[in-house]
Structure formats: C-alpha cells, structure tokens
Amino acid sequence: FKEALVEKPCLVSLLMYHGISPDSGSPQPLYLGMVEEKLASFVYGIMSHTEPPVAHTVAYNFQETREDGEVWPGVWTPLTYLSKASAVKVLFPHTIVTLDFKEEELPPPRYCMIFDASRANEINDVIEEYNEDIMKVGFFDSMDGAVAKKVAKNLKQLEKLGPEKIKQTKMVMALAKRTSDPLLAFSQLTPLYISPDTKIGSKECDMFFPPPNVFED
C-alpha cells in the first residue's frame, strides 16, 4: 500500500460533516466518532479494520488486486478519531496551525522509587534539592502499583494518618531520568525499591500515577 502511494499521485480531501435533523432542521450535535462512522460507512460499508469492504461500495469498486494477490485499496479513510487526527496532522499541518493546537510533550523516561513513609521528612530534604527532576510523589498503602491506593498526597496529609498507619504506608516517587545525579542521590538513601530500567519504571509510575484521560467527561 505504501508503494502505491509513492507510485501514483493521490488526491486527499479533508471533509467536514454537518448532521441535519429531519424534524427540527437544526444541526445535530456531533458525538465523538460520528465523522469516522459516516465516512467509513460510505467508503467501506462497515466499521472494521479486518473485514473486506462490502460489495459495490466505493472501496470495493476501486480496489486493485496485484499479481502477488495483495489487495491495494483505491480509497481509504480513517476508521477512528485517533487515526483521523493523525492523518490530519500529517496531511494537513496548516489546519492544525489554524486551530492553534499544541501537542502535549511526552513525559521523560522515569524511574519508580519506593521508600518507607516513616522516612518522608528525610527523603523530602533530598527532594527539595532535585525538585525539577521529581515528577510525582505520593503515599500508598502498598508497593504493588496494580492494587495500591493513595492514602496521602503530601506530608501534611501523611501526618494526619497517625504513627501506626504511617508504618504501613509507602512513599512512592516518579523520578525523571535527565541526569544521573538525582538517581545516585536517592539510591544512597537505600530505598525499598528502584525500577531496573526506565522502560519498566515508566510503566510502574503510570500505575501509581495514572495519566489523565483526555476523553473523559
């Protein structure tokens, strides 16, 4: 398919769908995914990445079967709003500029470090020194990010838990890997756990500190 895009000129159109209510004559509210559903239904007759297009649809009529049996589509449209957004970004960058859209930067590689919460004041002294490298700090009831529940967000909330509860609480920190100095400094404090690498660490940090879901209401 990529070869087909290089071999032949392609016409790319950016369409806007306006739904009209037959009763009121006023525009229908656009729910997330409506544009993709309408275009996919028109082009393929289905909303699936795995099934072939329905007979006599636009995609079916213009697809081409090569000598090796590979089918090259003559018409393509994104099936999800995420793939549509990616296509618009690549094919129509000026539209993105017009919308004044600013893409959020991905977080840097991170290590997950865990300490006993009873040492929070001691750890906090080092946190203040490397504050720019500390992405998240929280206090949890378990070292297992899959089941851990946050019991305090800061030292003030931690102190309200009481001595017995604090003994059972863990201080979890997401440490960005920009330089080696912060990691060495916190490692000298003998943490209960340090991620073996940033790939695992980034996943562990997301378990304790889930990124916000931009599609939630």
Polypeptide structure, described:
This protein has ten helices and seven strands. A hairpin with a 5-residue loop joins strand 1 (64-65) and strand 2. The protein is elongated, with a radius of gyration of 26 Å. Helices cover 35% and strands 14% of the residues. The protein has two domains: 1-72, no CATH class; 110-208, no CATH class.
Mean pLDDT: 83
Instruction: Indicate the overall shape.
Output: elongated
Radius of gyration: 26 Å
Strand segment tally = 7
Q: How many helical stretches? A: 10
Q: Which percent range describes the beta-strand content?
A: 5-15%
Low-confidence stretches: none
Q: What would you call the structural class?
A: alpha+beta
Terminal residue distance: 37 Å
Element pattern in H and E: HHHEEHHEHEEHHEHEH
How many distinct folded domains?
2
- Helix coverage percent: 25-40%
Q: Give a quick account of the main beta sheet: strands, pairing sense, barrel closure.
A: 5 strands, antiparallel
In spatial order, strands of the major sheet run: 5-4-6-3-7
Organism: Homalodisca liturata
Protein name: DUF4746 domain-containing protein
Pfam family, one: DUF4746
InterPro entries: DUF4746
List the helices and strands and how they pair.
Elements: H1 2-7, H2 34-43, H3 58-62, E1 64-65, E2 71-72, H4 81-91, H5 93-98, E3 110-116, H6 120-129, E4 134-140, E5 150-152, H7 155-159, H8 163-167, E6 170-176, H9 181-187, E7 193-194, H10 198-208
Antiparallel strand pairs: 1-2, 3-6, 3-7, 4-5, 4-6
